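Worked example 3. Consider a protein that binds 6-hydroxymethylpterin-diphosphate.
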Amino acid sequence: MEYYRPIAMTDAARPAGALPLAGGWCWFAQVEVLRRDGPARLVAVGDLPGEVRDRLSAPRPDFGGLGLDRPRIMGILNVTPDSFSDGGRFLAPDAALAQAQAMAQGADVLDIGGESTRPGAAEVAMAEEIARTAPVIAALRAGGLTVPVSIDTRKAAVAQAALAAGAGIVNDVAATGFDPAMASTVAGAGAPIILMHSVKTPATMQDDPRYEDVLLDVFDFLNARIAMAEAAGIPRARIMVDPGIGFGKTAAHNLALIRGLSLFHDLGVPVLLGASRKRFIGTIGREDVAEARMPGSVAVALAGVAQGAQMLRVHDVAETRQALRLWQAVNGVDE
Ligand code: HH2
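Given these inputs, the predicted complex is written out as structure tokens:
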């Protein structure tokens, strides 16, 4: 099997045969063709099979009502006592509401979660997770906030309650593999879903994670999960993928996934990058305090945008938006 990684560019000097990357702000004239059993090679777009060219360059359909021809920011709102960086701050409904309103100024989507999935986290009972999330979403809607909301959950009943309360997107860090009812629930609701790569459960995922080739292994996993989701009735046009930074990965694994991120466009669906404040940012950036990792998080987010990632999941919405505006201006990309 061959894997096609478009070499994403934004330079104003664009060769005649270059193609838009996923209909977005990057272009590519070359593709790195990767395989497990041999060396990688660079191929000009003109020498690619037509279906590969189409898959890599076609505009992605709107996702949850959002056009993906420009980078989108997903603001994180954890309604939990124990999330690794904002745990306990927004557990009270009033605090959650105020934070949602503040983030809605700069975010294209709000991602609301009621269960921490940080390394070592314990599972939250379904009723508790619903009680944390659905009322906050309902209150946002009652308060007139129209920003799209995603529900960050592995559980079908939590997703269903959130959708009923006004959420429009399901964000599943287990890529429908945790709850057997998840895929059919999402299909039945006609909702879009984010499928993220992870291994095992949060309790055990950081115990010596190993891959044959992390980039290709994560690609194969997501490819298989897309196929399973489609078989369950979720059309490809309603699927986004995410390599799951920090979920069963060492710092070296995270870096390999970020460097090779544009490979995931070969799945033909939009790509989300969620690196905000994660441990490897602290390790490499030498910052022990998660809340102080905004600069490193912004640097990684921009690295993702430079490879055409359509959505960035971040805690520091206003700071990321400012950085993104400057990146767009410098690279001549429309806001
Ligand atoms: N990361 C976290 C949770 N959900 N969803 C997606 N799609 N991608 C991610 O990278 C991702 C995610 C973990 O971060 P956070 O929500 O800040 O922490 P916690 O799990 O401790 O609540």
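Take a moment to read the result before moving on. DSSP finds ten helices and 13 strands in the chain. Residues 1-59 form one domain.
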